[in-house]
Amino acid sequence: MNNILVIGSLNTDLETSVDHFPETGETLIGGPLQIHCGGKGNNQAIAAAKLGASVTILGAIGNDHFGQLLIKNLKKYHVNITPIKTCKQSPTATALIMHTNTDNTIIVTEGANESLSAQDILNAESLIKSHDIILLQQEIPLETQIEAIEIAYRLKKIIVVNPAPSRQLPADIIPKISYLLPNEHEIKAFRHNGSETYEDIILHSSTPIIMTWGRSGILFKNKEKQIQHIPAYTVPTVDTTGAGDTFCGAFCCFLHLGYEKAIEKALQASALSVTRTGAQNGMPTLKELTAFQFH
Ligand code: RIB
Question: Which pLDDT band holds residue 273 (cuts at 50, 70, 90)?
Fold first, then answer.
């Protein structure tokens, strides 16, 4: 199993279910309020840890109750939380989530995530050095992401970036990334030379792109340099929040098996993740993943 350093966000998810998303100006009655541990960095760390990877997370929480809940949860899954910093000026970030049983919408408040600075990354060089894979998302400041990629590239690490929510990375940074894992919306940030279709973007990218595509599955360039589409597994879907995060965490966890095998396992893990509410509740353990009969 890989030794993974996640550099990313820690949020508290305030979530409710709706049978359809509200129109502008419409008020809806939702289901009961649920409070879950979330944040793309946090979720991806937990996804990899539940599958047996050794995981450390570098991020920021506020000096508050929500922050302590996130720490408690990370400890439960044996994620190394030593590098997490507590920010005195800002609260722990929150995400306001509405989900139907096929989709979700999310608004993230900035909170302490925005205090994770490029200097924090410079201070963490030895931490980066001691890990095989550096896994990033875009819920922390752009300059922090860039510093992490620059250092990890210099140290010859495997760098995996989930560009969510989409923030434009400088053109000279993208080739330093080992794998990009966008969804069908985020991939548009990697268009170049007029490439328009998902297939064109993937074929012409200097960095391997594995596009997660919700219920349509996965699109990527295989070893034969052909576009390959793997359809998603059909499972009873309750809440898709965190499915992409499960994919990213699982992909890193299984990358030592080769990237095509890692994609296959990650697709299975993300299929299981949507069968329960909350970003993290459905994430499978290695035992659950192995036991499940996929068709
Ligand atoms: O990807 C799902 C996550 O996005 C949620 O947990 C929420 O916190 C936002 O970061």
Answer: very high
Q: Is the pLDDT of residue 224 over 80?
A: yes
Catalytic residues, by residue number, are 245
**Residues in the annotated binding site for substrate:** 11-13, 39-43, 139, 245
Q: How far apart are CA 221 and CA 211, in angstroms?
A: 10
What is residue 193's predicted lDDT score, i.e. its pLDDT? 73
* 288/133 Cα distance (integer angstroms): 24
Fold that domain 3-10+39-92+111-291 belongs to in CATH: UDP-N-acetylmuramoyl-L-alanine:D-glutamate ligase (3.40.1190)
Residue 43 CB–ligand 1 contact under 6 Å: yes
23 backbone φψ class: left, alpha, beta (φ>0; ψ -120 to 50) = beta
Cα angle, residue 141 at apex, residues 136 and 144 outer, rounded to 5°: 65
Residue 231 predicted with pLDDT over 80: yes
Pocket test for ligand 1, best of 140, 181, 241, 246 (most atoms within 8 A of CB): 241
Q: Is the CB of 212 under 6 A from ligand 1?
A: no
* pTM score of the predicted model: 0.96
If one counts every other C-beta atom within 10 angstroms of the C-beta of residue 218, the result is 20
Q: What integer pLDDT is reported at residue 292 of this predicted model?
A: 85
State both tokens at 138. Answer: 């875009």
User: Where along the chain do its domains lie?
Assistant: 3-10+39-92+111-291
